[in-house]
Amino acid sequence: MTTRRTFLQHAALLTAGAFLAPSALLAKPTQKVGIQLYTLREQISKDVKGVIGKVAKAGYNEVETYGYSLKNKFWGLEPKAFKQLLSANKLTAPSGHFGFDDYIGAGKDDDLKAYIDAAKAVDMKYVVVPYLGDKLRQSASDYQRIAERLNTAAEACKRAGLGLAYHNHDFEFQKFDNTTGYDILLNETDKDLVKFELDLYWVVRADLDPVTMFNANPGRFVMWHVKDMDKANPKLNTEVGSGSVNFRKIFDQASQSGVEHIFVEQENFAIDPFKSINQSYAYVKKNLLS
Question: Which residues in the chain come in under a pLDDT of 70?
Answer without folding.
Answer: 1-30
